Amino acid sequence: MSSMALSYPRSQIRAMFDLTAVRPDVVSLAIGEPSFHTPAYVRRAAIESVQAGETRYDASAGIAGLRNAVAETYSARWGLPVEHRNVMITGGAMQALQLSLLLMVEPGSEVLVPDPCFPNYLGQVHAVGARAVPVPVRKEEGFRLRAADVAERITDRTSAIVLNSPSNPLGTVMDDDDVLAMVDLARLHGFTVISDEVYEQILFDGRRHVSAATLAGDLDHVIVVSSLSKSHAMTGWRLGWAIAAPPVVAVMAEIQEGTLANLPVPIQRAGIAALTGPQDELREMVDAYQRRRDLVVATLRDIPGVTCEQPAGAF
Ligand SMILES: Cc1ncc(COP(=O)(O)O)c(C=O)c1O
């Protein structure tokens, strides 16, 4: 095996997940997995597609209907013109992250990541031959990533920063000023902001998500990755996207052509249904997550000697 493979950092989330599998008496909180089922109308769209025989290879960047549905969703959400040329359909946000790093990061360069972060960032940065540079978060700052801490760690080898707001595992939401300052740093130093917004819909207390793309005003130095895994309880469907400048999407599609070829069409039909169908179940899920957050935070705070910040979003 290659030195990359032999030194690949194992995700400790999976280690905990594997432990829970052999212990019948534990509740697994190891993985960002909704306890709800994918809405019935979404499942039905995939079944109908299979029955209609949509079982062949298709376009590497995704079927036109889904790319358009994503573009329309984000044009409305961001208040920016997003076109199908900006949308690459991927195997979950995870593959969108991988493609983003493959395209924007030179081997031997540095990628800034929040510390702590979703552990797969470390593996993905390692796999493209770059070095992950952790940027700490502090209790005094409400565990939010701060632009000043990022600025201190920029070098002439910095090729990208991965942002994640709302954050896994912290549940924090970054301040708009900090995100904007990081976009400005990216413009100044010529690196890319890869913004992992998979929890964009899971925000509490009536809070609304503000994307790095909205704050930047364009996609020149920003790639946004997201998916339906969390919002529509679709983790196992592996359906996500990257939203980027058209030349970036074009090369992502070329790489996809030589690897996965394309996401299965029935899965993509389910994605169209999820984005364009009724969103009531999403709201019910977020309400349930908020009630659970309140219960867990209150219970933890009742334990003498334990303090707990109130998460603003995510699981
Ligand atoms: C921060 C973060 N990014 C990405 C992912 C992966 O999302 P997807 O299922 O869309 O690949 C997760 C899943 O837990 C996550 O927590």
Automatic annotation (TrEMBL):
GO terms assigned for molecular function: pyridoxal phosphate binding; transaminase activity
Keywords: Aminotransferase, Pyridoxal phosphate, Transferase
Top-level lineage group: Bacteria
Biological process, per Gene Ontology: amino acid metabolic process
Pfam families: Aminotran_1_2
Cofactor needs: pyridoxal 5'-phosphate
Aminotransferase class I/classII large domain mapped to chain residues: 25-315
EC numbers for this chain: 2.6.1.-
Enzyme class of the recorded protein, top EC level: transferase
Similarity annotation: Belongs to the class-I pyridoxal-phosphate-dependent aminotransferase family.
UniProt protein name: Aminotransferase
Organism: Georgenia ruanii
